[in-house]
Amino acid sequence: MPTPWTFPNTIIQYSETGAEDRHVSWLEIDGFSAVKTPDQRSVKTSRDLVHIARDPRHDITEKTYYLKATNFNFYNMPENMTGIELKLSMNRFGRITDDEIYLTVNGETVGENQASLNLDPIKIYGTPTDMWGTELTRAQIQNTSFGCIIRFQSHPNWPHKSSALIDAIEIRIH
Q: In which domain, by residue range, is 163 found?
């Protein structure tokens, strides 16, 4: 039996290496006020995710900062894990799509990038039989550093500067 869908307790937003030289990061501006937990369970952005400042004439595929969601506090973990599912519920404002959807342990990305161009407002990455190309242990998944790293971009076929609002990030272990 899988764990219940579980929400993160920690979320940070950060930029790609070198981007800090070109603009001020979200963390320096106002801490974590762009993320709220209105029902004390879910994570919800209170404004659009910010795009990284780039030269718009030369980079038509705008990308957001990274979001790292960790510290999921799973309970009732299955004895033999067979799959990991990540559910994102969000407003994509029509054309914002995935750039990177990874699992993370100890600050490092692990496994396969699950990003797709699908624009559904609720997307489930992974399956009950998909471990994302990893051999994660029960101890690693229960570690507070386990979670996901997500990043979005404007759709490559229809570039724009719209961003995304996230309603919930959830993970379930099979």
A: 10-173
